[in-house]
Amino acid sequence: MWTSDELNSIGAAEELRIASLRRDGTLRKPVIIWVVRVGDNIYVRSAYGPDVAWLRGAKVLREGHIIAGGVEKDVTFQDADAAVYDQLDDAYREKYKRHGVKYVNSVITPEARSTTIKIVPR
Predict the structure, then answer these.
(1) CA-to-CA distance for 97 and 110, rounded, in angstroms?
(2) Quick check: pTM over 0.70?
(3) Range 4-121: architecture per CATH
(4) 12-31 mean pLDDT
(5) Which of 30, 52, 112, 122 is deepest in the core (most CB within 10 A)?
């Protein structure tokens, strides 16, 4: 489980660095993405659809490493429950609205929603 400090720090971070684990046990090159918090959970989505390398890697072994808001953690990647998608859309809209509708809309499309990953600490 995340600590309150970790949730607050990651949730407030502008970006998250995510690296999935390769089959040989090494980490892929980190990718910078937007991150949101809903309740006591941390989520990310692919603005570029399901075929991006970081997401494909995250779905293979379901383990990796993240850095955000001063927190560095080994994590597990889980498929998110679709029941939270609307809350996540709202979280993305609120947190990233200063970037403009065009960019925010890229993470709330049906395709982006289908890529939602819940990040759980190991």
Answers:
(1) 19
(2) yes
(3) Roll (2.30)
(4) 96
(5) 112
